[in-house]
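Hey, I'm writing a tutorial for new members on how sequence and structure tokens pair up, and I'd like a real worked example in the thread rather than a made-up one. If someone can provide the structure for the chain below, I'll link this post from the tutorial.
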Amino acid sequence: MLRAKNQLFLLSPHYLKQLKDTSASRWKRLLHQRQPIHPEWAVLAKKQLKGKNPEDLIWHTPEGISIKPLYSRADTRDLPEEFPGVKPFTRGPYPTMYTFRPWTIRQYAGFSTVEESNKFYKDNIKAGQQGLSVAFDLATHRGYDSDNPRVRGDVGMAGVAIDTVEDTKILFDGIPLERMSVSMTMNGAVIPVLAMFIVTGEEQSVPKEKLTGTIQNDILKEFMVRNTYIFPPEPSMKIIADIFQYTAEHMPKFNSISISGYHMQEAGADAILELAYTLADGVEYCRTGLQAGLTIDEFAPRLSFFWGIGMNFYMEIAKMRAGRRLWAHLIEKMFHAKNPKSLLLRTHCQTSGWSLTEQDPYNNIVRTTIEAMAAVFGGTQSLHTNSFDEALGLPTVKSARIARNTQIIIQEESGIPKVADPWGGSYMMESLTNDVYEAALKSCTTYFVALSHKAVPSLLSKIKSSRDPAMAERCLQALTQCAASGDGNILALAVDAARARCTVGEITDALKKVFGEHKANDRMVSGAYRQEFGESKEITYAIKRVNQFMEREGRRPRLLVAKMGQDGHDRGAKVIATGFADLGFDVDIGPLFQTPREVAQQAVDADVHAVGISTLAAGHKTLVPELIKELIVLGRPDILVMCGGVIPPQDYYFSVCRTTVLLSYKFLSIYRRTFLFLIRDHPPALLLTNSYLSKHFHHYASLPSPPFRDSSLPLMTKRFMATSSEATHGSQFFFTVKCDADHSLMHFRVFHHSP
């Protein structure tokens, strides 16, 4: 279970000394000395560099590792010869690697309804995909049924909605589960979802002993970076222990967990931190299994990992090689595993999301290809390649096909799979692998904090009305009793509940009665933006305008940064909040998983000037209009609403008073000849003056004096709108403006109360 105060201690100084003392193989040395640049080459290089020092060519990576411009035999003379499939598995977990069987093409996908997702999976299998990876919607991730009002903007928006076994049966209809490996990204609601998968197999005549695949089940990562948790840490770890027990006994071909470094990388971790945090989580899961009464060899062979692969090509290959070596050593020395399969680090990989750019998105095809090759050279067992347009929104059918075919071309046309670990013996790669190994091992000596169609409600009602209510109630009560007493296996009881047609929400609620819900402590880092941008002209001017506002109003401009719906990805929201705070704003960060009404109430209670909504899961068209309506109901239509995140271009303007921004006369008159906007590729809270507008907006013009008291107030327009659209309704004045900054459309709606 979790240590006191949720701290995980991976390696003690005593254990570190043991590692130093047990250096039977020379690669285990912790003080690997980097060799100087080869002197003969240095002389030649200095001539070509016209006298400059060749040491200047050394590349210092973000991980703090120095990569030389040239490597030689001296860099690897202390390292032993290794082979794939042989401990410590640096060169791969299997002897033949891809020469016998290539990696599994496993594209992550889930499209709104189970029927659409089922068709997509079947089409991809026909086109060459070799395994399934199911993306569930956020309502399912957070344990809600589709008819719950809290998830109105989330159902079917960023994955497939699952409520009952009937949904799961449709999802996998016609897919041979006895032969097709299925990976399911599920953490918070892992118990009901895994139970329904097992029952689906049973009802398709596939016994659970034959089911193959992986359930992510990595809750520590959720507490650290992703936030799709439900229960507090300790009961969450009890759930993981029960899954280990159940799968070890009943599902020998199924991976009980996928320990994720991918989300660490997406949250900003470099390769060393990704290795350290992920392997620390892995060690804690091993302790959890042991405390549940299992031996290490009963469950460790079915542990799997999940790496993110970025654009640092050499580093990513070395990370994967070093990770296998380090994991084998940790499991053998810490837990005394006897089965060689317990030492294997088997991994799925996914190309980077944060390396994708919205500008020139077709360049992302090249980036993804480079990252895919790094994953393959690193020895992945399965791979997802991102679609080039994912920085814009959900991928299209065309972009998803290109992403999948990228892997097929590498497998079938490049010749890369013909050689097992072609980087083995490379002076550079072997030396870099050793450097990464030692740096990650050193990092492991510290403490780690462990911490769209919608589903049809009538279908859910029909299933509830047709089941045996007494049986369903008994199953749910048994779950609650197990959670309270600790006696019994939660997953086994959840399988019984799934057979009785209990829903995801009901099973989750039965556990919530005892476990409660985990609440995150929102924290904001200050000073990052000012340190990065320095005292630039734009930053200085923005701070000046904020100070002028404070002098005029008697307080600083106040902003609420909020997340609505079940999207737990909050890194971008916190970055924006930090930027505003560094510019002098008072910034509130709202809790995760809020409804529009709750955000509106918090905005009114805090008396903010503006609300910034972060949306990454396609709920904006439902949730943002509801927020605006709630602010109007509360008598605060003057509060500015801004929306940012992953918003497809086709959603920039879809109807009046939707993704548009609500401005008030009061707000505009305060800034007079200045607007406050968030625009991509510019510092946050940049105050746009007339000169700035004329520079960055090709057809900027001040409109004729609108009926505002401050007739000098300029309003933006662009080539798509030469004039404004106006309508007067009693005491209200509506003004719609459309502009295009560097091909990024932004839309605003002025809501004016006549005095």
